[in-house]
Structures are given as structure tokens and as C-alpha cells.
Automatic annotation (TrEMBL):
Protein name: Uncharacterized protein
Upper taxonomic lineage: Eukaryota, Viridiplantae, Streptophyta, Embryophyta, Tracheophyta
Molecular function terms, GO-annotated: metal ion binding; methyltransferase activity
GO BP term, example: methylation
Source organism: Turnera subulata
Record keywords: Magnesium, Metal-binding, Methyltransferase, Transferase
Pfam families, sorted: Methyltransf_7
Signal sequence residues: none
Record-linked InterPro entries: MeTrfase_7 (IPR005299), MeTrfase_capping (IPR042086), SAM-dependent_MTases_sf (IPR029063)
Domain of life the protein comes from: Eukaryota
Amino acid sequence: MQKYVILKTRPILEEAVTKLCLESLPEDCLSMVDMGCSSGPNTLLPLWEIIETIDSTCSKLNQKAPAIQFFLNDLPGNDFDTVFRSLLPNFYDKLEKEKFDKLGPCYVAAMPGSFYGRLFPDNSLHFVHSSYGVHFLSQVPEGLVSEFGMPMNKGNICLAKNSPQSVHKAYRDQFEKDFTSFLSSRSSEVISGGRMVLTFAGSSNHNPACIYGTGVWIAICDCLKDMADEGKIEESMLDSFNLPVYHSSAPDVEQLIQREGSFDIARLEEIDINWDDNIEDGNQDLVFDKWARGKYVSNYLRAVAESVLASQFGSSIMDDLFNRLPLKCSNYLEEGMALCHTLIFSMIRK
């Protein structure tokens, strides 16, 4: 699904990079970062799309392309070694074969740390990209426990229809604080005229499945509730657990960008993506039934969520949990409720 999202948003990424090349292309080195890059086969996909756009634009301008310095950013726990040991050699081989003598040198480096704070010197970045990163909060919001020690979001692991308004406010306040910090940090690091493209999961009132933008997490919560009913996990452990995830609406994000004041919005797109989109990637000859589609969704959710769930409930229940999840996911898919509302913001540093 992550690959599908990156490819789906490619026209917006191409447009931003093209305009950057036309308006603010440096002669020596173009410095960029992918924030929340994760570690896996999709890690270098945005970089390749950016390189192709730079190559095409510079060729049309009959201009030599500058060197590229590309930073991969994620939390220090990310396995950067895997990227540099297993993925980067093949990437450089492909770059040499397909772009030989067309581009300047390309340097890829790691920048571990939270993107909710400063990571780079002032005016050192020309372009910032992030795909499915900024809906993850810097921490679980405060205020989810009453003054008497009672969990306020009981029976949920994220925002849900029955979450109290105080829980909604706590999540919204944490997102506003984090996203404003993100913008403020980037405002110092990005040059005037620099570009930023952010893609993240959001919410929308136009579809019942996207009001809270948390359907995949609610499917996981349903499985945990079943396990609590069966005595396989403590109900108190479920009641006290909340994910650091918030899916904001496009108008609310626009308001935060305008309030922080460092960036102009060049383009905003909203798209709904089915949980099982791109299941046919590399398997076009296969037919996927309801169960197979549920299993596909469960597998990539496990890659995203297992570590944080295991920290609360223990590793021993993970196989049981994710063996239950395909059925929940397939039911959501069958009911047409398996949608991820996705926001794409393309911005210009003032």
C-alpha cells in the first residue's frame, strides 16, 4: 500500500521538484530529505522519482544537473544498516546504468532523530518529502487518564466514535503542537523558495469510513477486545493503551499552516485509498478472494504496528492477534468501509 501511495502522489511530487528546478536550482548541490523514511523496499522509491524529475527538467533546460545530497530521516531505532547494506548498492548500480553522465554525483546519508525538532542547519535544505509520517505523534497525548487514575478512552486504542470529547481534544491538541513544531523546524532549515511535499493519513466527513481516519486501528482493537474477552490479555492492559496516531482534516491542517506562517500552500489533494490497493503488484495473473485480501492488509499492518503493540501486550500474543486480523479486515473490505483518507500538501517556503 505504501508503494501505491507513493506512486499515486507522484504527479504532485514531480510538479514540486520541477518548479524547484525552474526557480531555485543551485549550481553546486541540491540538498533534500525524506522524513520518516522507514526501512524497506520503498525507502528509496521517492529518491528515484525525484532524480528522474531532475534529470528530465535539467535536460529540457539544457543545464547540467547539480550534485544531490539526499538524507534519509527516521527515529534512531530504524534499521538504517539494512538500507545502506542491502538497498543502496543496487540503487547506485541502477543509477549508474540508467543515468550515467546525465547527473552529478548522488550522496545518500542517514539523519536519525525526530522530525518534530531541528535536524539540519539553517537554510540548508532545498526540498523536504514525507510519506505517511506526520500522522504519527511524538507521544501519546496527555490527559487520557482521569484525576482518579481511570482510563478516559476505555475499550479503544485510538480515537473512535465513542471516545469522549476530552480524548478528542487531547489528541487534537497534541497534533497541533507536533505539527506546528514540524513546520517551525522546517522553516528554519529550508531555503526561501524551497519546497515541501507531505503525504499523510487524514480524516473526512464525506465518507463514514473516514470520519476518524482510524479504521485499520479499530480493526486491530476489535481483535484485542476479542482476546480480552477470552482472557488472553488483561482488559486493563487494553483500556490503558492508546496509540500515538491522529488523523487531522484538511481544513484543520490548512489552518495550522497558515497560523505558523512560514509556508504557502501550492497544492492540496485529498484521495481515498482502499486498504487492499496494489495487491496485484507483481501478481497480476492471480485472483484474490476475500480472505486473501484480508491477509494482505493484515501483513502490512503487522509490519507497521507489531513493535508498538508488542511493547504493551508482549510478543507472545502477536501471532494470535495477526491471525485474527485478516477476517476483521476482510469484513471491512466487503462492507466498503476499508478506506484510508489521504492528504497531500505541496508547500513553498516563503
